[in-house]
Design goal:
about 15% helix; Methylamine Dehydrogenase, Chain H
């Protein structure tokens, strides 16, 4: 009986030791294995991952200070073999790069900055990995970090940045999703009927439109496309506020509607002369008193 017990004990100890050795060998290696992507990318500063060519594989974005001073992306062939393509070179020390679909065309674009050149730019991807630059700032001296976020919660990607030398934080609003409208006509004599058309483009459905046709703080209409009759000559500002489930956004067109009749300078001169000719001094004749 004791012999059977000892044999079972030895068996369990053997299994425990084998398991311990195996687990120790497994976990002593850690969960990560290092792979070299590129070994000649001078002074690499910033890096990001995104599917830039739309093939379902995550590519790599990177910036190099010197000697390249460039922004590049490394195309992933699906087997983690990477080929470098340079987006821009000889740029004033780029130090931060991000990727997002800024114009909502289904292609991943690139945001980057050159802190010595005081530049921040967006590079729009046409879907064939051709990139077109839009400079969004030329005064961002020593802008060392940018991130992409929807800061105003309107559904598009804005850019947030931090500058080192001038000690500020700034952001660039993406106007892809924005409030806008048009009026026809925008000038004429009273009474003037203007047809207003909402052309707002937002990511989420709009629940409410609020028009203020003379910008006096009173809502004049809640209809999306509507009209208004201006009965008094004046130059009017017009505002439109829209609401979705997640945000409220408003735009004001200053001095947008001009309602006449308007008097020309020549006619104004004639009226002024006529008014002056009708002036009389009382008593008449006018006698001045000696000083």
């Amino acid at each position: 009986m004791k012999r059977v017990y000892h044999e079972k004990l030895r068996f369990h100890l053997f299994v425990f030791c084998i398991s311990f050795v195996f687990c120790n060998a497994l976990f002593s290696q850690g969960l990560f294995t290092e792979h070299l992507v590129f070994n000649d990318f001078g002074n690499a500063v910033s890096i990001a991952g995104a599917d830039l060519d739309g093939d379902g594989n995550i590519d790599i974005l990177a910036t190099s200070n010197s000697p390249g001073n460039k922004v590049s992306w490394f195309e992933n062939d699906g087997y983690q073999n990477f080929t470098e393509d340079t987006i821009i070179s000889n740029w004033g020390q780029p130090s931060s790069v991000q990727a997002a679909d800024f114009n909502n065309d289904g292609n991943m674009d690139i945001a980057a900055e050159a802190w010595i050149d005081e530049l921040a730019s967006v590079y729009y991807n046409d879907g064939n990995e051709n990139f077109t630059e839009e400079i969004i700032s030329e005064t961002a001296y020593e802008l060392i970090k940018i991130i992409v976020t929807d800061l105003d919660l309107d559904g598009d990607h804005d850019i947030l940045g931090a500058t080192y030398a001038i000690n500020d934080i700034r952001w660039w609003e993406n106007s892809l999703y924005d409030v806008s409208f048009g009026g026809i006509p925008v000038s004429g004599n009273a009474p003037l009927t203007v047809e207003f058309t909402d052309s707002t483009y937002l990511a989420n459905p709009i629940n409410q439109h609020a028009w203020d046709f003379n910008n006096d703080g009173t809502i004049d209409s809640y209809v999306q496309n509507t009209s208004w009759i201006y009965v008094k000559p004046w130059i009017y500002s017009v505002s439109l506020e829209v609401q979705t489930d997640s945000l409220t956004k408003k735009i004001v067109y200053q001095d947008y509607i001009s309602v006449g009749p308007f008097v020309s300078i020549e006619e104004m001169g004639k009226q002024t002369s006529k008014t002056i000719s009708n002036l009389k001094n009382y008593p008449n004749p006018f006698i001045s008193e000696p000083l």
